[in-house]
Amino acid sequence: MEKERKHKALVFCSTADEGAYSGAVWPAEHTGVLRVSATDKYGHLTPRSNDLQPVDIQIPGENIDAAGPIYMSSSSVGKTVSGSSVATALAAGVASLALIMLQTFNHLNEKELDHIHTRECMKVVFEKMNAHKSGIQISNLFPPLPDSTARLEALKENWNKENFWDPNRFQ
User: What is the mean pLDDT of residues 101-123?
Assistant: First the structure.
């Protein structure tokens, strides 16, 4: 029977938006989580975002097209949702894609596999997309190239593990 691999969990938490609890919130105040705040389409923190709380990732979270089940009011076409909770869901999705890309384009040993599941590694991933200062620029890691061979080579280069941590750390 093969040994089951277990990794640390990455935890993404939204920072406070407007409302009764717009001050510091838990678990976003915990040092082990990635704190996410919503930006507008220009990469500026939304007026509802709390600028008193530290933010690790800024990602668009205003007027995002969304549809839901019929029993919810968001089921109609043309409905949008906004807020840091929306941005947090998007950040978690981008992080899961980043984990897959790092595993796909690298031969990772056990320690490296554990490392990509850390806050530190994910912060580097999002910093490469400018998500720490101006909203996410996903094209920084997913170049829009017309030629599929050139795109594959660019992806291999962009997702090389040495771009995300010091390889000597694991030797």
Answer: 91
Can you give the pTM of this predicted structure? Answer: 0.82
Angle 123-92-120 (CA atoms, 0-180°, nearest 5)?
20
The mean pLDDT value for 130-153 works out to: 80
Confidence of residue 92 (pLDDT cuts 50, 70, 90): very high
> Which has the closest alpha carbon to 95: 39, 16, 11?
11
Tallying the residues shown for the chain, one arrives at 171
Burial of 146 (0-12, 13-18, 19+ CB in 10 A): exposed
Q: Find where tokens 């968001």 sit.
A: 74
Q: Any residues with CB less than 8 A from the CB of 80 and at least 6 apart, and which?
A: 63, 64, 65, 66
**Percentage above 70 pLDDT, the chain:** 77
Radius of gyration of the chain (CA): 18
For residue 143 the two structure tokens come to 């170049």
158, HSE (Cβ side, Cα atoms, 13 Å): 19
Nearest of 131, 125, 130 to residue 96 by alpha carbon: 125
Cα angle vertex 38, ends 32, 41, to 5°? Answer: 145
DSSP 103: H
pLDDT value at position 160? 93
For residues 150 and 53, the model is more confident at 150
